[in-house]
Specification:
OB fold (Dihydrolipoamide Acetyltransferase, E2P); six-stranded antiparallel barrel; alpha+beta; Elongation Factor Tu (Ef-tu), domain 3; Helix Hairpins; 3 domains; HlyD family secretion protein; Beta-barrel_RND_2; elongated; four-stranded antiparallel β-sheet; 386 residues; transmembrane
C-alpha cells in the first residue's frame, strides 16, 4: 500500500524550511574530467574475412573483363546468328495469278512449280513472233530467187553482147569490102550506105547489151545488199520469238533449289507485276555468322573447330568449324561509314564477322532456322581441321 502524504495541519510550522529565493544563483557543481575514447582492436578473424571479400571482388572484376589470370584461348560471343541464302521469289512477267501450287511452309524440290500466271497473252505473242519470223524467212528466200534471176539476166546480156559483137565484126568486114568495091565503082553507093547502116545498128546493139549487163550487175548488187537487211530481219524475228517463248515460260515460277517456302503472300486472281515479292525460299544449307570483337580474332584461323549453342534448343551444343573470316569489319560495309578525322574521338570496339560452317550428321542441325540467336565458342589454340 503506498504511503499517505501528511495533511497540512499535521506539519510543524517551526520545522518548515523556507524555499531559497528565486533570484539566487545555483550552487556550482564540481568539474568532471572527459572520458577518453575507446578503440576496438579488430580480431584476426575479421581481418581475414575483409581480405577474402576484397580478393573476391577483385577476382570477379578480373573474371568479368577476362583479365589475367582469367584469360582463356576460347573466344566466346553471343553476337551470332544462323544465316542462309534466302531467295526472294518474284515473277519476271506481269499478269494475273491463275494457280498457287504450294502451301505455306511447304518443303519443295529444285525445279518444282510454285505458281502460274495467266499465259494467254504470252501464247499469242509467241504465235505473232513465229508469223513474223516466217514472213522474214519468205522475204529472204525471195531475195535468193531475185539474185538467181539477176545472174541469169547478166548471163543473157553477155550472150546478147557476144552475138552483137559478132554481128558488128561481120558488118565491119562487109562494109570494108563494099568500101573497096565502091571505090572501084563496082557497086552502087546505095549498097555501100546500106552496109554502113548495118554496121551502125550492130554497134548500137553491142552498146545496148553492155548497158544491160551493167544494169543487171547493179541490180544484183542491190539485191545482195537487200539480202543482208533481210538476214538481219530474220535474226531479229528469231530473237523476238525467243523472247516471247521466254516470257511464256516465265509464267510458271519454279523453285531454284531445294528448301522450304515461307508464308505465301499471293493468292489466285491477284495481279502481280514483274519484280514484286511473292514468297521466300529458305534453303536447306545454313551456317552461322559470329561477330567477334577485333581483339578476339587474334590467333583465329580458318579450319579451327567451333561449338555453338542455340537459344531455342535450351543450351544444346552443335559443332562446326571456322569457314571464312570477313575481309573487313562490319562498319566498313555500312552505308554511312564513320569519320573520325574531325570532332571528338571516341574509340568504339569494332567487330569482325566470322562464318562458321555446321558439321554434317547432327540431328539438331535440321531444326535450325535462319535468324536464330546462338552463342559461339572458338578455341584459338586448336589446330585447323582439314
Amino acid at each position: 500500500m503506498p504511503p499517505v502524504p501528511p495533511r497540512p495541519d499535521d506539519i510543524d510550522a517551526d520545522n518548515v524550511t523556507p524555499p531559497p529565493p528565486t533570484d539566487a544563483a545555483p550552487a556550482p557543481t564540481p568539474a568532471t574530467p572527459a572520458a577518453a575514447p575507446k578503440y576496438l582492436k579488430p580480431s584476426a578473424r575479421s581481418v581475414v574475412v575483409m581480405v577474402v571479400v576484397a580478393l573476391l571482388g577483385i577476382a570477379l572484376i578480373l573474371r568479368a573483363w577476362h583479365l589475367w589470370p582469367f584469360t582463356s584461348s576460347v573466344m566466346v560471343t553471343d553476337n551470332a546468328y544462323v544465316r542462309g541464302q534466302i531467295t526472294v521469289m518474284a515473277p519476271q512477267v506481269n499478269g494475273y495469278v491463275t494457280e498457287v501450287l504450294v502451301k505455306d511452309f511447304q518443303h519443295v524440290r529444285e525445279g518444282e512449280p510454285l505458281l502460274r500466271i495467266d499465259d494467254r497473252i504470252y501464247t499469242q505473242r509467241v504465235a505473232q513472233a513465229q508469223a513474223t519470223l516466217d514472213s522474214a524467212r519468205a522475204a529472204l528466200a525471195n531475195s535468193d530467187q531475185s539474185q538467181a534471176q539477176n545472174r541469169a539476166q547478166i548471163a543473157s546480156a553477155h550472150a546478147t553482147l557476144s552475138a552483137g559483137q559478132a554481128e558488128l565484126q561481120r558488118s565491119r568486114n562487109e562494109l570494108k569490102r563494099y568500101e573497096e568495091l565502091a571505090a572501084q565503082q563496082l557497086v552502087s553507093v546505095n549498097d555501100r550506105d546500106k552496109f554502113r547502116t548495118t554496121q551502125a545498128s550492130a554497134q548500137a546493139s553491142v552498146q545496148q547489151s553492155q548497158a544491160q549487163i551493167r544494169i543487171a550487175e547493179e541490180t544484183l548488187v542491190s539485191t545482195q545488199v537487200a539480202r543482208k537487211s533481210l538476214e538481219a530481219q530474220v535474226e531479229s524475228a528469231q530473237a523476238q520469238l525467243e523472247l516471247a517463248r521466254i516470257d511464256l515460260a516465265n509464267t510458271v515460277i519454279h523453285a531454284p533449289r531445294d528448301g522450304q517456302i515461307s508464308e505465301a503472300s499471293v493468292r489466285v486472281g491477284q495481279y502481280v507485276a514483274a519484280g514484286s515479292q511473292l514468297l521466300f525460299l529458305v534453303p536447306d544449307t545454313l551456317w552461322v555468322v559470329a561477330n567477334y570483337k577485333e581483339g578476339q580474332t587474334w590467333g583465329m584461323a580458318i579450319g579451327q573447330p567451333a561449338t555453338f549453342s542455340v537459344d531455342a534448343f535450351q543450351g544444346q551444343v552443335l559443332r562446326g568449324r571456322v569457314q571464312e573470316i570477313a575481309p573487313a569489319t562490319g562498319s566498313e560495309f555500312s552505308v554511312l561509314r564513320p569519320d573520325n578525322a574531325s570532332g571528338n574521338f571516341t574509340k568504339v570496339v569494332q567487330r569482325l564477322p566470322v562464318r562458321i560452317s555446321i558439321n554434317e550428321g547432327q540431328t539438331l542441325a535440321a531444326q535450325l532456322r535462319p535468324g536464330m540467336s546462338v552463342i559461339v565458342r572458338v578455341d584459338t589454340r586448336s589446330k585447323p581441321m582439314d
